[in-house]
Amino acid sequence: MPDHQAPLDLLLLPTWLVPVEPAGVVLKEHALGIRDGRIALIAPREQALRLAAQEIRELPGCLLTPGLVNAHGHAAMSLFRGLADDLPLNSWLHEHIWPAEARWVDEAFVRDGTELAIAEQILGGITCVADMYFYPEVASQVVHRSGIRAQLSIPVLDFPIPGARDAAEALRKGLHLFDDLRQHPRISVAFGPHAPYSVSDDKLENLRMLAEEVDAGIHMHVHETAGEIQQSLQQYGERPLARLQRLGLLGPRFQAVHMTQVSDADISLLMENNCSVIHCPESNLKLASGFCPVERLWQAGVNVAIGTDGAASNNNLDLLGELHTATLLAKAVAGNASALDAHRALRMATLNGARALGLDGEIGSLEPGKLADLVAFDLSGLCQQPLYDPVSQLIYTSNRSCVRHVWVGGKALLDERQLTRQDAQQLAATARQWGEKIAQRHHA
Ligand SMILES: CSC[C@H]1O[C@@H](n2cnc3c(O)ncnc32)[C@H](O)[C@@H]1O
Ligand SMILES: [Zn+2]
């Protein structure tokens, strides 16, 4: 039993606090208390100051929100940032990225690339990532050390991949990882079939059975381009989402990444099966893949989360920037300036992301009892004045340089803009070394 009379470990005193749930609420001059890694209370400042606390932190001019959830990425691809720009998905993937992965991706690549990506994401206020890449066992060690929260997907494709000779080996190794991490407080393991066009029916059926058995999420690129739909219609006589439904993959643990091609029947399937959609606007724009109709999905009741995708198609892991793009794009796509307002955008990057990963009981909003995954944004800068609504200011005016503090489970990962567990200079130097090595071969 937690001792409710024990002093708080930490009392945070921001100017504004946005709990996300209830929706649209902005609390001014409120405090948030943390005990044993969880939110112990949210109360008016003066009232909270009467309580004993081991540490009190004034956060003047700061907005405190739940930590951001990057619901789709390929962390280690940070080392391929800028390697193949200005290309459509097909040639980007087949002619550049897959050959580069076959040449360069090994355990060291995944370790260094994942570490770099995690540092970038903590600097941007991200406290939880859904990562889908090769050698997830190596990524899990980096995540463990870094203090961030993560869902790691077991990669499955029809052909050999770095770290597994075939899908059977990938699944076998993945299930070991699942067992090893079953009790981990911050890491969960999901299945990551790459895409409908790269994984055959028998493998999807096998994977569905395993996911059901261990109650794991399924994270997959789906309906990324119009070409994907055409190919599926030719090959299977049905749209990819309908095929996944026939194979039994759709359900509340299904995370459909991209969804730029959406028919009314697709929306019904997503709704009936309570699936989540992960919107990746900047990757979709850069690869000219298409536009996810966020407002239509939202109004239909589909849970929409947001992700950056990898740094080779974005080219940053800046979720605040992603939200800015997402709001503007949603308005243009819907032809409606009220589409995806700032408060809903923040919800998309917090509670909806948590729900997609099956974590909404633990993170995604500031509520007593939930884990203390938090971010403090400094909104006191000249470019953010005057300030009428801190959430409007965060989404429409700010960028990631305003991230000042980040906590995961009550532990500080960013303190006064400094990483507490990683050496930024060392990470940059290692990334530069990889870049030099890769560039030499790439341009030879
Ligand atoms: C097994 S998942 C990793 C696999 O996915 C590739 N990838 C990265 N971004 C995308 C994207 O937007 N669409 C399709 N595939 C993508 C990555 O390079 C890895 O090969
Ligand atoms: Zn992706």
From TrEMBL:
Its EC number is 3.5.4.28, 3.5.4.31. Zn(2+) binds at residues 72, 74, 221, 309. GO terms for molecular function: 5'-methylthioadenosine deaminase activity; metal ion binding; S-adenosylhomocysteine deaminase activity. The keyword Hydrolase applies. This is 5-methylthioadenosine/S-adenosylhomocysteine deaminase. Keywords: Hydrolase, Metal-binding, Zinc. The lineage of its organism: Bacteria, Pseudomonadati, Pseudomonadota, Gammaproteobacteria, Pseudomonadales. It comes from the Bacteria. The keyword Transmembrane does not apply. The gene is mtaD. It catalyses: S-adenosyl-L-homocysteine + H2O + H(+) = S-inosyl-L-homocysteine + NH4(+); S-methyl-5'-thioadenosine + H2O + H(+) = S-methyl-5'-thioinosine + NH4(+). Residues 64-412 form the Amidohydrolase-related domain. It holds the Pfam family Amidohydro_1. Binds 1 zinc ion per subunit. Catalyzes the deamination of 5-methylthioadenosine and S-adenosyl-L-homocysteine into 5-methylthioinosine and S-inosyl-L-homocysteine, respectively. Is also able to deaminate adenosine. Its cofactor is Zn(2+). CDD domains: ATZ_TRZ_like. NCBIfam families: PRK09045.1 (NF006549). Substrate binds at residues 101, 194, 224, 309. Belongs to the metallo-dependent hydrolases superfamily. MTA/SAH deaminase family.
